[in-house]
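Following up on my earlier thread - several people asked me to post the actual chain instead of describing it. Fair enough. Here it is, all 427 residues.
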Amino acid sequence: MAVLMLSVFTVSIGYGVILPLLPYLIERLLGTGGDAAQVSRSTGLLTGLYTLSLFLFAPVWGWLSDRLGRRAILLIGLIGFSATMLTFAFIENIAAVYAERFLSGMFAAAVTPVALAAIGDLAATEEARARRLTFVSLAGISGFLLGPMLGVFIARVGANLLPIVSAAGSLAIPLAGTAVLALLVAVAAVITVPGTKPGDAVLKRNQATSEAGPWLVPKLLALAFIVSAGVGVFEVGLALRGKQELGLTQYQIALMFTECSLVMFAVQAIVFSPWVNPKTTRWFIAPALAVLAAGLFLVPRASDFTLMLVVIGAVAASAGILSPILTYWISSKAGKAQGAELGKQTAAASLGVAVGSAAGGLLYDVALLPDASFLLATVLTVLGILLSLGLPKMLVTRKLGKAANDVPKSPIVAATGRTDDRIDQLL
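Reply from S.P.:
Thanks for posting it. Predicted structure:
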């Protein structure tokens, strides 16, 4: 569990380190020829490219982990992620940044869904599954929580102590540190993570829990996409609005992302605490989507730093609840294909962030409709509310015995205890 949590933590901290500094890095690489519009577009596209790569490769890595074992795929992801982060530390070309973001996303896609699938293998009960999935989710949030502030702090300290680092780009030290951390976690994974495929007992247990209708998991995947799209618009819009409209410093922008992660951490710890039955979480989906829609609508209307913090709290609380709830229910309904289904969930979430991030950058500050990206995300979230209205009843697993007892029995069945089909065969 510790190694799985560290794996997700490492990928998240690598993403978090880059996000608040990305507009400043792009501005430096573009030089005097770059304007605010180009910085906005590049920030959105680069963030979207990373998550688009997650979308493309997460289902493949998850499928391979079902067949080759979790450890091999996890090692590929961690070692590859380490190499790309170390390369990013010395990039001095905007085209190379695009290539690095794509490759980094490709290897990161082998970490999160495989770690989640391993949880599905290890958990003996639904309560244990919910708690452990939450632990991994909290590890990811912790990485994103520390990443922005840590990246800005280390970059500033490095620039003051080593001027050559500033000339090469202030991201060098935190990125190299993340690369080393990924290698250390890979070594730990070799020792602790089982290298074999899930056993027959695990597969039978997971198969027994999978009694979902054909459209249930696709609905959950659609909601994962919608939530992530809103978060993608929110993240890019937050960085751009803080820099270009509110005139905030790097530290203030990083503080907003830190608040976002803290709120997510807190609400997840509460919702999936031992005092809450995991099955009751299905009733939280629609209300949380409503809060998310309201928060996204209000973000561009927050006129100062204090109001931004209030709105950020609402968005973070709703998104923080929804993400692990959807992951839990997809894992619960995945059956024996834990890697494949959780890979699809990671892909759906990544595609949502990619679309949201690209929209957040490309539609930001459009002349005819300045708040176009946030308005689009709000409308999409409202559609998610409508989609989620019937989910609480669909997520309740009806056992075959109970369903059979609900059907009126014939006199012969009542007398003999045999099913109608069996009596037909006997006759």
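The chain has one domain: 2-396. That should answer part of your original question.
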